[in-house]
Automatic annotation (TrEMBL):
<dbReference type="GO" id="GO:0043842">
    <property type="term" value="F:Kdo transferase activity"/>
</dbReference>
<keyword id="KW-1003">Cell membrane</keyword>
<dbReference type="GO" id="GO:0009244">
    <property type="term" value="P:lipopolysaccharide core region biosynthetic process"/>
</dbReference>
<feature type="active site" description="Proton acceptor">
    <location>
        <position position="60"/>
    </location>
</feature>
<keyword id="KW-0448">Lipopolysaccharide biosynthesis</keyword>
<keyword id="KW-0472">Membrane</keyword>
<dbReference type="InterPro" id="IPR038107">
    <property type="entry name" value="Glycos_transf_N_sf"/>
</dbReference>
<comment type="function">
    <text>Involved in lipopolysaccharide (LPS) biosynthesis. Catalyzes the transfer of 3-deoxy-D-manno-octulosonate (Kdo) residue(s) from CMP-Kdo to lipid IV(A), the tetraacyldisaccharide-1,4'-bisphosphate precursor of lipid A.</text>
</comment>
<dbReference type="Pfam" id="PF04413">
    <property type="entry name" value="Glycos_transf_N"/>
</dbReference>
<comment type="pathway">
    <text>Bacterial outer membrane biogenesis; LPS core biosynthesis.</text>
</comment>
<protein>
    <recommendedName>
        <fullName>3-deoxy-D-manno-octulosonic acid transferase</fullName>
        <ecNumber>2.4.99.12</ecNumber>
    </recommendedName>
</protein>
<dbReference type="InterPro" id="IPR007507">
    <property type="entry name" value="Glycos_transf_N"/>
</dbReference>
<comment type="similarity">
    <text>Belongs to the glycosyltransferase group 1 family.</text>
</comment>
<dbReference type="GO" id="GO:0009245">
    <property type="term" value="P:lipid A biosynthetic process"/>
</dbReference>
<feature type="domain" description="3-deoxy-D-manno-octulosonic-acid transferase N-terminal">
    <location>
        <begin position="35"/>
        <end position="206"/>
    </location>
</feature>
<dbReference type="GO" id="GO:0005886">
    <property type="term" value="C:plasma membrane"/>
</dbReference>
<dbReference type="InterPro" id="IPR039901">
    <property type="entry name" value="Kdotransferase"/>
</dbReference>
Amino acid sequence: MAWGYYIGILIYTAVIRLAAPFNEKAALWIKGRKRIREKIKQIPRDKERLVWFHAASLGEFEQGRPVMEALKKAEPHTRILLTFFSPSGYEIRKNYTGADYILYLPADTPSNARFFINHFKPDAALFIKYEFWYNYLAELYKQNIPIYLFSAIFRKEQPFFKKWGGLHRKMLHFFTRLFVQDAESVRLLSEIGIHSVQQTGDTRFDRVKQIATNAKEIGKVEKFLNGSPAVICGSTWPPDETLLLDYINTYTGNYKWILVPHEIGENHIKAILEKCQKRIWRYTDEKADISSAEVLIIDCIGLLSSLYRYGRIAYIGGGFGVGIHNTLEAAVYGIPVIFGPKYQKFKEAVHLLQTGGAFSIQKKEQLQELLDRLIGQPQIAEAAGHKALEYVNSQLGATEIIIQYITSKN
């Protein structure tokens, strides 16, 4: 089984190399790992305690960030090594000051795993949510280095619970402890003989609370709103934008609209500008009289989590594609959340719906009716927002539990 996995890793790497001339993300993946061993050798391994965190991408980084920062606060002298698998995480957070060393994770081959772990000799390794790399886990286990997985969630359709999932089950046995989000994960793991498990919840709740507490004021947005209520449309895709613009183009009230597309390529931004029939300005247009606009399109990254503070209502994109984006970033501000039909894989979205803090729509007419109700009857929106915030507050505390356990094992 391990040989089959190894061959799969080699094939995967070869495919990325072939795609690199035609795909920017693949090119960054290859470029970031060029001469990776030389980069690693340049990082000294001093006598201080070193803890390795690994995140697949940006979302997992945000999930792991409160744990990294809490560990640094509890153990100021501990070095933190942070690795990423994906360019979408590394390229955005390569200058993150909360980690001492930030790298791409070398491809998961036995040779790379031995070299990486022999060089850094981490005192502990923490993997965030979904990352399972057999050779790294096996080498850590071989060297008796504690391995933790946190904010994990397991579902019965995953390979771990299939007859053919022997290699995946073996990886679970390498972990010293698994901190999982829910009771169902505990049950599923117990059925396959994995008992070093603790239900702690999801550290994303701690992270969004942290973000909301430290949310920055955005002067240009305040000038745009000028006291008007707003709907914040975050991480939208074309199907979301079609529905939203159908509503916006016929809306005659005093609400303003902030669109934050998931993709901010020039062609996509121009397409939205052409379809919008209201006064619309780009955030980066320094010459625009932004206070006269009815719609603001955010054509840069890094603002969304702070933008929700200005909303009375949030629409979260992605629900007409592979799945919705982060609903918690909006819910933490006590505003109702709207999203499309593909939300079932996101436990927090399901719970927000159950508690009355969120609404799901499947077609244009439903969105129009819902927005008319929430805008026209603000008491309904306020009540739903209160329920959203109550739900977020009820889920806080995973970070503290994880840190207490890890630091007690030093």
